[in-house]
Amino acid sequence: MSVKISVGGFLGWAYTRIKPPSPRICGSSGGPPITSPRVQLNDGRHLSYREWGVSKDEAKYKVIVVHGFDTCKDLKLPLSQELIEELQIYFLSFDRAGYGESDPHPKRTVKSEAFDIQELADKLHVGPKFYVIGLSMGAYAVWSCLYYIPHRLSGASLVVPFVYYWWPCLPADMAEECFKLLLSQDRWSFRVAHYAPWLFHWWMNQNLFPSLSMMAGKLDIFSQSDLEYLKSLPPNSDDIPDKTRQQGVHESLYRDIMAGYGKWEFDPLDISNPWPDNNGAAHIWQGYEDKVIPYKINWFFSEKLPFVRYHEVPGKGHFLAFDGGLCEDIFRTLLVG
After folding, report:
1. What are the pLDDT digits (tens) for 123-153?
2. Which residues of the chain have pLDDT under 70?
3. According to the model, what pLDDT value does residue 82 have?
4. How far apart are CA 158 and CA 142, in angstroms?
């Protein structure tokens, strides 16, 4: 009897360690307030969004911006008002599932990200076609759009894009070489997210081994240009970090990693050219000094996919989109070539 009690007690303790906490859903009792406009999706979830730039009715170009890891729709890009008015750009930013004020999605996947974008565009009457740009982790949503909803895209940009080291199309030696460039603690974190996602919450909260370096505030993962950018930021410049994780770190950050590094139904070489008439393209922007995202894999895709244009920026790291001149180049290239 005592053995059964001990085993039962251990299993109960283990379950409480593995099970993530319940989310603090926006608008619920005790949850964060709803302060931004939201649309309700067909499955009942809400997506929070922000519209900026020129109005939809006046816009020549309509761009959906997909934020990266540990940020949200309120991310500020250094685009001048002159450029926005010159090109007549309408921007639609949104909180991905579980981030900011968008409802969590317990079954969130790479595929669901594309259909969230499509449904958001339809609910807001953006039109039959639009441009999409994904930053860092948000780029896996752009790969998903290229595969699942290519007929909706006028063009796409993947800026310092997320890399999935288990894509079958990758040469094994290249995948291994690039994976080994990451810090050991990051390699283990991504392995857990890939092979044992049910254990990921425990992994990120245990104290036996170091987990994801970015969340631990470790600066080794950044290049010199990234460190200079971080030093240039004013202290407490905005409330984005607090709002980003306000529904729970598991629902925002952990699920993002679990979706991105979980099982994919396709790899990039499965994508057919969305623009066979050469009336569009997908652009990859990569900092050569980026230590977060190894450049070789993104270069590989530009060599294999005829509709991908590769832009490698010497001397720049992971934060290249926050260089004002480069940011404007990224958008001008996406929209007018």
Report:
1. 999 999 999 999 999 999 999 999 999 999 9
2. 1-17, 236-241
3. 97
4. 7
Instruction: Determine the Cα–Cα distance for residues 284 and 266; give it in Å rounded to an integer.
Output: 19
What is the model's pTM? 0.93
> One-letter amino acid identity for 57?
D
